[in-house]
Amino acid sequence: MKSNETLRNILNSVLPVLLALLIGAILILAIGENPLEAYGIMFGKSLFTLRGLTNTLHAAGPLLLTGAAIAITFRAGLFNMGVEGQLLIGGFMAGLVGAYLHIGNPLLHKLVAFAVGASVGVLFALIPALLRAYFRVDEMVVTLTLNYVMMTILEYLSSGPFRDQGAGYVTTPTIDSSAMFTRFGSTRLTPFFLIALLLFGILWFLNTKTEFGYKIEAIGKNPEFSEATGLRVRKSIIMLILVSGAIAGFAGAGHMMSQEYKYTLSFSGVTGLGWDGMLVSLLGSHSPLGIIISSIFYSALKTGADNINMYTSIPKEIVAVIEGIIILFLSIRFLNERFGLLEKLSKKKGEKNEPAL
Amino acid sequence: MGTILQTKDLTKKFGDFTANDKINLTVEEGEIKAIVGENGAGKSTLMNMLYRQLEPTSGEIYLRGQPIEFNSPRDAIQHGIGMVHQHFMLVPSFKVYENILLGTELAHDKLRFLVDHKKEQQECAELIKRYGFDLDVNEVVENLSVGQQQKIEILKMLYRNVDILILDEPTSVLTPQEVDELLLQLKELKAQGKTIILITHKLREVMQVSDSVTVIKKGQIIGNVKTSETNEAELAQMMVGRKVLLTVQNDHIGQESPEVIYTVNDLTTNNTYGNIVVDHVSFEIKKGEIYGIAGVEGNGQSELVKLLSGMMEATGGTVHYKGEEITNLWADELRKLGIAIIPEDRYAQGLCKEMSLSANSIAGSTTSDAFKKNGIFDFKRIRQHCQELIDHYQIRIAEFDGNVSQLSGGNAQKLIIAREMNRQPDLLIASQPTRGVDIGAIEFIHQQILDFRNSGGAVLLISSELSEVMSLSDRIGVMYKGKILGEVDPLETSETEIGLLMAGTIPQEAVVYEK
Amino acid sequence: MNLLSRILYDMVYHTTPILLCVLGGLFAYKAGVLNIALEGMMLAGSFIAVFVALHTQNTLLIYLSALLVCGVIGLVFAYLAVKKKGNVIIIGLAINMLVPAIASFILQYMGVPNLTAKWVNPVNFRFDIPLIKDIPFLGSILSGHPLGTYIGLLMIFVASVVLYKTRFGIYTRVIGESPNAATSLGIQANKYATWAILIGALCCAVAGLNLSYERLGIFTNGMTAGRGFIAIAAIYCGKGKPVQSAMYAFIFGLARSLAINLSVFAGPISALFDIIPYLLMIAILAINSAYEIRNYRMRTYW
Questions:
Q1: Which residues of chain B neighbour A230 with C-beta distances below 8 Å?
Q2: Is A124 exposed, middle or buried (0-12, 13-18, 19+ CB in 10 A)?
Q3: C159-191 pLDDT, tens per residue?
Q4: A135 contacts in C (CB within 8 Å)?
Q5: Nearest alpha carbon to residue B465 among B339, B309, B301
Q6: Contact (CB, 8 A) for C86 and C37
Q7: pLDDT (tens digit, 9 = 90+) per residue, A148-166?
Q8: Which ranges in B213-355 belong to alpha helices (H)?
Q9: Could you point out which of A17, A230, B413, C130 has its C-alpha 20 to 30 Å from the C-alpha of C72?
């Protein structure tokens, strides 16, 4: 029973990916390129070389955190779509701390930047959290809208007051070297990846072993029951949205200090790290292990896409298309009890149905 | 007059569960046929098959001797079978006439694509007049009482000219007076040639109105009798399969002490629309006493329980517990003070269906340290605790690690009671504690409540089952339109007296609180 | 034109795309389907209109292709949401992500930063309505707009009639408010939900087309800039009633018009004026909701 369910869950994540890759392949064919070659480059260069693999892991760091930020709220039945905006303001403010506060001490400088990044994430998340809890305003519409507000504000700030006048494009000044994470050897990997992993581990622990996780599960599955048994739903959802905002802000700060070093208008990449977090969380069915796997998978797709651009004429935007299609298919469950497809399969195979990991 | 409706070996299975097993039902034209059975016996399944909301697994249905082939409620209506559901199928924001004509709107004479609201109003007014109902076609449904809404449902079917009218538990939400009115109306419809199928578990009504009775138990027909040739006790025995005591043994001798433990004073609150739904409610409960609250559903009982269990805020009044004011405290604070709560809807407020048994067994205690070690859940202790509850309260489970959804209604309710009583409370607030559970569980739950009372506990019992309140309580307050209209002694009162109170009339003998 | 009538004219002008989204989107809202893909559908309309305009000057063809593409997206939404009972929020978000992704994929492939239909001169699309244009003051505000604006204004009336006076509208409201009542009377909920979603998609096509083709002849990615979400807010605030919801759309249009017309006087900080409509929307949502729950005594809002 149980393993059957696990297998079903895994297939429900794997099938959309395969289908999306298939549609992506058709698109690649349509512009006259060879999809097999393209995917070969994509995954080969991102997973099967040391350089590629470390690049992939490096890029997975922020995804791991934005995925967690989304998962915490999704599981509680909340739609914090503001992770993107919270990440942007977190990164931007960490960039200002890095560039304008000449602290000098590498550890202290980073700590301050992280603290500021996470705090502004919290402050920004406070708006939808309070509106949700005290005025019953749909947090999804508010956060979606606030993302535009934040983008406009940051565009103004980075092209006006905080613009690096020496640069030929819109950017804030580069952060001090004391705020930059040093890379491991010749790889792009920095200690930030380990920090992200550690933070993720802590969240995982809190989620499975403490009241924090119990609250998330209960509120997500039955808010009325949660209130009736004393979980104080209103207070809890404020707390959850704020935690989500803190993680997003923290991720933004980390991305600033380990990858971007300055705030540009493409700080968050083609698809946006916050939105990627949604894919990662959905693909991993909001479970810790699932999020780790899917963040590495999606990070591979993204680093791979950078390579496609170099070797073929396929625009790297293909990865955004694939991302959209995956999410579209993740909205429905391909397999469930009714279809019985899995039961038929497992009967053919006898009773051997270990999860195909 | 011959047979109008007949089923042959009608069977419905849901997975491995057989809800209806080879049902052979015969309904004569122009009769009132009562179908009785306990909760979960399969009455509603049968009716939903007749009405084609459910597809039978096997078997046939014959209408006037012809096998029927229609496969939707709409078809059923066209063939003259109409149904009034237990939960009304009305659109609350629509007006009466819009609801009656829903699905058969009248088109405008010239602009065929438009609906002619004026013509609709006229037709409905005529219909209402013809059948002697008392309704305004332009009222918005959400402003109407339950009894009036039921009339709309019946009119909906009459407008469609059905010959057979199926009513599913029509009286469960009505006051005794409204029930009488409905039964009269049904006799009137019978006189006009309609065939009526009445699904109910209230035997008094069966005896009052029906011509013949079919008893269903565990998905099977176990008896067909003429109403004139049977009596309530016989039907009850057929329904349950053994002789039951219609009331539990209650000697009404608790350890009642003069010590008042719980005082509610002028408690008031309003609903979303700003209407007062709990109106200056006052009562007190002593140690070793069961205080019952009776009343037709929807008269503020739900809100009162929510107020007292920390889910809703009072706009006025106070609640005192052991001399301390606890007005508007939150659910976790109430539990810490030793108040146990059996909520009205067990799956909405009592349990989380998609969570495990053990997770549910610690609900309400997660904020305390009882199940934690250094702030971290001690899963071993939690599982052990859950197992203890299961053993001690004889909860029948299929899989220990499974979710609550595996439990039957009675066992789910037992889990709530186990969890709440295990905290060794001093006050128990029990709302509709036996709703929708089987007879065996009812007895068990009633015994638990009595035992708790006998050991010195105080109980607030809210139930719309009059017999339950009557047989368990030491004192009864009757709620009507948010007020406690009167307080009676169950040993000295009659059902008529309480019935009058429930309908909002204050009989002279009753003790009345003037507030 | 003096400043006041200019602001009011611009209000109508800037309200148009939001208004169309609102009036189309409220059908799905009434049918109980939350369609947050209005944003993506509108962007698709914007893209296709200019994309086709690169190849033809036939306005009818341009309209038809935008309607067709958005119709297909609407059907995909309806299939996944209604037939497959998928999570509508995720479907909506996916469409909102997918449309700009495909657009930028194509732009990258074509090697251009945006699409420009050089032959388009937006002034040519504006035309006056006889009679109305002669009304003093009002004429200068309501007349002289492109076709999309007139469609939007007309839709206020059409949506009201359809929703309240036709079977389609009545059933659409029933399946949203009381699905059980619908099934018990044999009203096919899926059919009406699908049509409701489709109407929204088609209106978004016109909205998008208005935004890119009729106004500028240019498509840039992300040009819808959250107007779809503002439309959703307007629908929420107006509870899906056509006239009320349209009023909210006009309020947002006014905010935008003020931001643009007053920015002349403000200097560089005026870049921030763009956020005014969004903040206004959030404020209105909050006030609306606070008013609605003023009597709410339950401790949780579910």
A1: 310, 330-335, 364, 366-367
A2: buried
A3: 999 999 999 999 999 999 999 888 888 888 999
A4: 286, 289-290, 293
A5: B301
A6: no
A7: 999 999 999 999 899 998 8
A8: 232-240, 301-308, 331-336
A9: A17
